[in-house]
């Protein structure tokens, strides 16, 4: 096999591999699901959004994080969660970042499974939370 033919076969193989790994789907149950594209939210200082006591899986709820003590702990769906992972990549929230509203970060919380919840806000990576064993400590 000549060199140009080998290069063409190599490039074609790499292209097929990459296209198979990056496929996206519109069904939350499918591998490669990129999630919904949500509009940017503007925080309202007189009303914090915390989602329902019993959230449904794969449904994004308007949610505000109090950043005064950081973003490690959140209360969602009637229980405390702790930040586990941050996933840079495809932004789930589109639009212009709203002007900062003090200590409030406005976005969406989505229950992914019984022990996983994702927070998405415009211009930020997805933050994944898991159930906390204890209540968060107070902050100074």
Would you mind describing this structure in some detail?
The chain has 140 residues and is an alpha+beta fold. 14% of the residues lie in helices and 32% in strands. It is built from one helix and eight strands; from the N terminus they run αββββββββ. The strands form two sheets. A six-stranded antiparallel sheet has the order 2-6-7-8-4-3, with no helix packed on it. The chain has a two-stranded parallel ribbon with strand order 1-5. The protein is globular, with a radius of gyration of 20 Å. Mean pLDDT is 76; it is low at 3-30.
Keywords:
single chain; 140 residues; alpha+beta; 6-stranded antiparallel sheet; two-stranded parallel ribbon; 14% helix; 32% strand; disordered N terminus
Q: What structural category do the secondary elements indicate?
A: alpha+beta
Q: From the alpha carbons, calculate the radius of gyration and give it in angstroms.
A: 20 Å
**What is the helix fraction of residues, given as a range?**
10-25%
Distance between the termini: 69 Å
Q: Give the helix tally.
A: 1
In total, the number of strands is 8
The coarse silhouette is globular
Low-confidence stretches: 3-30
User: Can you list the strand order of the major beta sheet?
Assistant: 2-6-7-8-4-3
Order of helices and strands: HEEEEEEEE
Q: What is the mean predicted local confidence, pLDDT?
A: 76
Largest sheet, in brief, is: 6 strands, antiparallel
Topology:
Elements: H1 3-21, E1 38-39, E2 60-66, E3 73-76, E4 79-87, E5 93-94, E6 104-113, E7 116-120, E8 126-131
Parallel strand pairs: 1-5
Antiparallel strand pairs: 2-6, 3-4, 4-8, 6-7, 7-8
């Amino acid at each position: 096999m000549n060199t140009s033919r080998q290069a063409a076969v190599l490039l074609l193989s790499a292209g097929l591999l990459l296209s198979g790994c990056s496929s996206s789907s519109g069904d939350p149950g499918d591998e490669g699901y990129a999630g919904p594209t949500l509009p940017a939210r503007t925080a309202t200082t007189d009303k914090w959004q915390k989602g329902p006591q019993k959230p449904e899986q794969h449904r994004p709820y308007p949610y505000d994080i109090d950043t005064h003590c950081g973003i490690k702990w959140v209360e969602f769906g009637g229980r405390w969660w702790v930040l586990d992972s941050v996933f840079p990549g495809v932004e789930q929230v589109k639009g212009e970042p709203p002007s900062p509203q003090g200590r409030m970060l406005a976005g969406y919380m989505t229950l992914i499974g019984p022990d996983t919840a994702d927070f998405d806000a415009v211009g930020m990576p997805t933050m994944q939370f898991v159930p906390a064993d204890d209540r968060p400590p107070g902050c100074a």
